[in-house]
Amino acid sequence: MRGKDCRKPRPNVVLEIISPDQLCRSTSWDRTLPLRDQDLALLHKIWLELSEDPDLASLHHYHIVGMSLERLYERLHGPQREEILALMKQELRKPDKDQPAE
User: In whole angstroms, what is the distance from residue 91 CA to residue 99 CA?
Assistant: First the structure.
């Protein structure tokens, strides 16, 4: 890519979540894989909902991301492929609420 050094290190972002009982959890996000604020907010909303279950108390955000990606991959390589491709094309046509931080 011209005009920009893609190998230039970028700082990581650390998401810290402090629960009502003052337990602090943190997650590091690599800035070379930018996520939109709306994506992070949805991820956190899902995590909050799931982590209310005592059996999921040790759940991390990366568990949700990993499971979601596995399910997407399965659907992409199964009978729902055309549906997934159509949904992805719709996603590309949506105006972004915000752009990933660079």
Answer: 14
Q: What is the pLDDT of residues 58-82, one digit of tens each?
A: 999 999 999 999 999 999 999 999 9
Instruction: Tell me, yes or no, whether 12 lies in a domain.
Output: no
Please report whether residue 68 resides in a domain.
yes
Q: pTM for the complete prediction?
A: 0.63
In a domain, 33, yes or no: no
Q: Which domain holds residue 83?
A: 59-93
pLDDT at residue 12 is higher than 80: no
Please give the full DSSP string across the chain, using - where no structure is assigned.
-TTS-TTS----EEEEEE-TT--EEEEEE-TTS---HHHHHHHHHHHHHHHTSGGGTT--HHHHHHHHHHHHHHHHTSTTHHHHHHHHHHHHHSPPSSPPP-
